[in-house]
């Protein structure tokens, strides 16, 4: 008998859907890890919010567990790699709280501009200090939006009504899309330097962690005000305290924090009289809670009854089309690779061709998997799934064309993708040997490199001694080369190395120096 456990509070409408499925449903909130481990073995489905931590220990105890449904977006409370390894499907509700988060961002900006929380507190003390809480208008001010995606775009639509001039930084959004919502795309530095108000809407990634720290605060206007309803950690909290305490900027409004609830050393922020705070309420509306509960319940029931996968963070390989499942890891890693090879330039289009025997097989999941990989470092891994990947790509102005051909030079099966970006086209080719994804072509070069680790690509003029020199640089900097392959075209060569460690930028520069080139690229594939 299939059984469902709901271990965090869930809106009644979602519970009704689960209970109406015919499966037994138990509600047991506020469980410790040990308590959850004691009972999880009897359940096929676990429905959670942010309170339950699904650790490796919990997953090991869940012998029958097939699906974990997260009523919300963030899944940092779930050990995703281990759940995937165990064949457990993880679902979330990536679009359910977009409007609520956008409206909360607008509310925070307004509260900050008019000192509403501080004036409210003063009134409740019996005071009447009108001059102390004089605010500023939004009218005519510059609003800087860092991350002009779904939430940032909705904020822009709403703040238009306040007659604000809107500028934005989003390296992955085409200009045409930004123009439609009235946002002028520019550099991160210009947003920092010129915005009167700034709002953040990026995922927390290695490259966005602490992206706003003391150097950025010192570049801002003294009257600048910043709001963050995205993720804690994008703004350095110690530097935020300094910037507010020393009046480097005028104010801040924060809904998200590095630690939730705040730890003792962070509570110094709450002593500031120019910081508006809320306890992660971006999605805390009646409507959003209704939507997340209903969406996760419907998705879980569809999967348990029909095996239909929707809103998936991961896609257990055994649940996919058996004719194409071996190519899914290849397609996803090619997507991650393609994004990193494009740099900061927005991708305009993809032309994906399935060659050889693949031409006669269902390939839609492979296309989706490629796009999921492509989007992972743009919107965050937890936000890209088999349901939303193609719509988000379309929203970002990426056209996708699929084709097939029975011809496949040198390989029984091959995936070729041509990526267009600002008029430039890059071609990558991949295949699978012995269930292992391999990169076998990049532009005019042909080679064979396993996509089992991080990769370094060095384009150089072919001459003796280059391979040895590059190997020496890697060895001297403790970079272990797992495999090396070289492709040649006339006098040009491309060295492709699979390595066991992340390669710092300074090491890449050293490699370029000994190879006599500046065309050295690094692809971080280790987590994919």
From TrEMBL:
Keyword entries, A-Z: Amino-acid biosynthesis, NAD, Oxidoreductase, Serine biosynthesis
Alphabetical list of InterPro entries matching this protein: ACT-like_dom_sf (IPR045865), ACT_dom (IPR002912), ASB_dom_sf (IPR029009), D-isomer_2_OHA_DH_cat_dom (IPR006139), D-isomer_DH_CS1 (IPR029752), D-isomer_DH_NAD-bd (IPR006140), NAD(P)-bd_dom_sf (IPR036291), PGDH (IPR006236)
An example molecular function term from Gene Ontology annotations: NAD binding
Reactions listed under catalytic activity: (2R)-3-phosphoglycerate + NAD(+) = 3-phosphooxypyruvate + NADH + H(+)
Primary enzyme class: oxidoreductase
Keyword Amino-acid biosynthesis attached: yes
UniProt domain ACT: residue ranges: 455-528
Enzyme Commission (EC) number: 1.1.1.95
A GO biological process held by the record: L-serine biosynthetic process
Pfam assignment, any one: PGDH_inter
Protein name: D-3-phosphoglycerate dehydrogenase
Lineage, broadest ranks: Archaea, Methanobacteriati, Thermoplasmatota, Thermoplasmata, Methanomassiliicoccales
